[in-house]
Each structure stands twice: as structure tokens, then as C-alpha cells.
Design goal:
With 284 residues, this protein is α+β, with helices and mostly antiparallel strands. The protein contains six helices and 14 strands. Helices cover 26% and strands 30% of the residues. The protein has a seven-stranded mixed sheet with strand order 1-5-6-10-9-8-7, with helices on both faces. It has a four-stranded antiparallel sheet with strand order 12-13-11-14, covered by helices on one side.
């Protein structure tokens, strides 16, 4: 009762910047996934030989393991999450994630210990695009916008600018996994917001029906169209039928009303670029 009712004196006046606080971003990611129906898992970093991903010669080996199931330090989180899913196979729907370290061997040095974010989704209606949508929304929440997906065998690689963020893996028809490098997330995550006022000039809208091979990704076509001019405000997929994809293109300027003389050169540039890169053409 003799303790005075006052706050202690701080020894430093340094302002805390949440953008540089790793734990802030960890909690933000966990909260987002929790609100989207995911359950966080905690698994052992030690794994058995049968679930170690990669060559066993590349594994970090424990000299005094507790058991035969805890001999090697894992290089990926996905096998551990698949084990959790297997133990809960009576559940038709599962959404699990884990944020934990992986370990990679280095010559004459301690192992490379890196934080990764991994997750799995199990459902009869789960597909690649559902997982892709969740990751896109998660990155948007973290302020990361330069996200691109490159198709790979049974999945896709994810890039932020030119840095490899991670990948999506299709395990089976009902089970899809993802794994991301946390250090890349920290590199690009930001709390900064950029305000863009509405233009006082009306937009110009046109639809382009593009004929292209089915092997050409729709996202690549949309990105290539948007890259052709700063006047292209938005590109969305309006319709898709066989080898034809119709894109809704919105042009807008902050300086003036756009006319056909402004739009025509941009449209010509779009069609020439798509023809050169993807052998695509405008549907006649």
C-alpha cells in the first residue's frame, strides 16, 4: 500500500515501429487465418526418415534422438501438417496452418534456420483457386500487392516482384497445401496506405475478346494488358468460352476526358504485344 500510484520512468524514448516488429506480423497473419476458419497447429521440428522431404543425406541429423521418429530436422512444414490431417481423417473438412522453423544443412556451420508459413485445406470442394484466393487476400492484408503465380507441375510458384515467396501444392483432389517464406513476407509487408482520389473525368470502357491457346494463363494476359499504359485503370475477366477470353478494360485519366484518339494507340499496342508474346489475337 506504500507503493506510489504512478507509471515507472522509461529509460528510452525510441518510438516503436510495428513495421519492423516480426512478432506483430506473426500475430497479424495468425489472426487473419483464424478468422478465415483455419486452426493453428504445433508440431515437432524433428521428423522420421519416411516423411523427410528430400535426400536424407541433406538432412540435419540429431546425434542423440529421443526416438526413431525424431532423428532428422525437417526441411518443410507440409509433411508435419499432413500427419495432423491423417490423424484427423474422420473430419471431412480441415483448414490447418503452422508458422515454424525449418532447418537446412550448411557445410562446416550451424544449420540454416528459417521461419516458414504453411497450411493445408481439405474439402471435397477445395481447389487451387480457393487456396490462391486466400493467399492473395492474406498478402493484401499485409500490404503486399506485387503477387504473381507461375504454373508448375501439380501447383504453382508464388513470386513477390522477383523474389520467390513460396508455392502451392496439389496433394490430391481434396487436399491442397501451401508454404511461404516468412522472410520474404517481412521484406515486403507494410502498413503504409496510399490515398488515390477519384478522377473527376469519366472512364472509358471497352471489352476485348482475345483468342489465345488454353495453355496461356488468364492472369498473364490480364497483367500484360495492364502493363501497356498508365491510363489502364482496371482489367477483369468478363467471359471465357473455349479458346476465347473476353476482358473488361477500363481507361481513365486524372488530367482530361479520354477520346478514341487516346484509346486507339493503346489498344493497338495491347494487341501487338499479346500477338508477339502469346500468339494471341483479337476475335473477329
Amino acid at each position: 500500500h506504500n507503493i506510489p500510484n504512478s507509471l515507472p520512468v522509461f529509460l528510452t524514448s525510441t518510438i516503436t515501429n510495428l513495421e519492423h516488429n516480426e512478432f506483430f506480423w506473426e500475430n497479424r497473419i495468425k489472426d487473419a487465418l483464424k478468422y478465415w476458419g483455419f486452426t493453428e497447429s504445433y508440431t515437432y521440428p524433428m521428423v522420421a526418415k519416411d516423411i523427410f522431404a528430400g535426400k536424407i543425406e541433406d538432412a540435419v541429423t540429431i546425434q542423440n534422438p529421443l526416438s526413431e521418429d525424431m532423428v532428422y530436422m525437417r526441411k518443410t512444414l507440409i509433411p508435419s501438417l499432413l500427419q495432423v490431417a491423417q490423424k484427423n481423417k474422420n473430419h471431412e473438412q480441415l483448414k490447418l496452418f503452422e508458422l515454424a522453423n525449418i532447418y537446412e544443412k550448411r557445410a562446416n556451420d550451424l544449420p540454416d534456420e528459417r521461419l516458414k508459413l504453411a497450411g493445408i485445406m481439405k474439402n471435397t470442394s477445395t481447389n487451387f483457386y480457393a487456396v490462391k484466393g486466400i493467399l492473395e487476400q492474406l498478402m493484401t492484408d499485409l500490404g503486399i500487392e506485387q503477387l504473381t503465380f507461375k504454373t508448375r507441375d501439380k501447383g504453382a510458384a508464388i513470386f513477390v516482384a522477383k523474389d520467390l515467396l513460396g508455392e502451392i501444392k496439389i496433394i490430391s483432389k481434396e487436399l491442397i497445401a501451401f508454404e511461404l517464406e516468412f522472410k520474404v513476407i517481412l521484406k515486403y509487408a507494410t502498413l503504409r496506405k496510399t490515398y488515390k482520389p477519384l478522377s473527376k473525368y469519366p472512364p472509358v470502357v471497352e471489352d476485348l475478346a482475345i483468342v489465345a491457346s488454353k495453355h496461356v494463363l488468364t492472369g498473364d494476359l490480364m497483367q500484360e494488358i495492364k502493363n501497356q499504359s498508365d491510363l489502364i485503370w482496371e482489367v477483369t475477366l468478363l467471359d471465357k468460352y473455349e479458346d476465347t477470353r473476353t476482358f473488361h478494360v477500363v481507361y481513365q485519366s486524372y488530367q482530361k476526358n479520354l477520346t478514341s484518339e487516346d484509346i486507339t494507340p493503346i489498344r493497338i499496342k495491347i494487341l501487338n504485344t499479346l500477338k508477339e508474346k502469346y500468339h494471341a489475337k483479337l476475335k473477329e
